[in-house]
Design a protein that fits this description.
β2 and β3 (72-77) form a beta hairpin. The protein is built from four helices and four strands. It is an alpha+beta fold and 155 residues long. It is 32% helix and 15% strand. The chain has a single domain (41-153), classed as Nucleotidyltransferase, domain 5 (2-Layer Sandwich), CATH 3.30.420.10. InterPro entries: Gypsy_RT_Integrase-like, Integrase_cat-core, RNaseH-like_sf, RNaseH_sf. This is Integrase catalytic domain-containing protein.
């Protein structure tokens, strides 16, 4: 009887047009293996534009998060160019904390440059903000950035 009902529903044109598949399509996504130590695997991304911009003209936040410890390094920047990303990577991460083994980056044009290795690992989460291992980073960083700008305008 179940087979008859299934055949009837599959042959019914209005049923086929209006009954959409509600299950997720199977994919080849695999979870990222957690690193064995600190500062081995980072995720790096831009956030913004943030309104209002700062007095210096900063309207984006670039951040890097250690996947294991959830330690975040973030700074406000004026634009999201490859040069800005490379400068942040070199000056704020490598020179201060050392070189990580791998960095998770998205496929944005600011990361698709000669200084990024072609063997970079793309995120496995189907979400634009899935890069960030700390989901509250974006909202918290933007809120703090805006509060800082508003308090500095009062002085």
């Amino acid at each position: 009887m179940i087979r008859d009902i299934r055949n009837h529903i599959q042959s019914c044109v209005p049923c086929c047009q209006n009954n959409h598949q509600r299950r997720k399509a199977p994919g080849s996504l695999k979870p990222i293996k957690p690193p064995e130590g600190f500062w081995q695997l980072l995720s790096m991304d831009f956030h913004g534009p943030i309104i209002p911009t700062s007095q210096r003209g900063d309207k984006y936040i670039i951040s890097a998060t250690d996947i294991l410890s959830k330690y975040v390094v973030a700074t406000a920047v004026r634009d999201y160019t490859p040069e800005t990303a490379a400068s942040f990577l070199n000056e704020e991460l490598i020179l201060k904390y050392g070189t990580p083994q791998a960095i998770l980056i998205d496929n944005g044009t600011h990361f698709d440059q000669p200084w990024t290795p072609r063997s970079h690992r793309s995120p496995t989460i189907v979400e634009p903000t899935g890069m960030n291992s700390c989901p509250l980073l974006r909202s918290t960083a933007i809120r703090v950035f805006i509060q800082q700008q508003e308090s500095s305008h009062l002085n």
